[in-house]
Amino acid sequence: MFLVLPPGMTIAFLAVHQCLFGLYLGCLFAPNHKGMPILTGDDRPDFLRRQVLTARNVRGSWFTDLALGGLNQQIEHHLFPSMPSPHLRRAQPIVRRYCQDLGVDYLETGLITSYRQALASLHRAGAPLRRARISSARA
Please, what's the b/e burial string for 67-99 (b: 16 or more CB within 10 A of its CB; e: otherwise)? Predict the structure, then answer.
């Protein structure tokens, strides 16, 4: 890029590109794990429960698959990490039925709901910091 653009424009382009790419990656990964239970050292569920209970799937069409890179079937991705993304959707009914048979909660939401849950979780996580800032400002 330094060969075809002036240095200032190249640096501006790279900065904007990296910011937008970071925003996209954050939007890609946030719906699947944010707001889900965090296991501690005392929690020792088996492999299936650990993968299913700490992730959520995002319902959608082929466009959701494309936009999220196939990671909207996060549960199946964690259970079968080497399975090609296009096949994760085909494994989903089998995994869902198996979880139902075992009594394991299998969470699947829409895209907007998943973002709402992720943002609510981040808001709760930041509450102590906001309270500390307000109390120190009053002092």
Answer: bbebbbbbbbbbbeeeeeeeebeebbeebbeeb
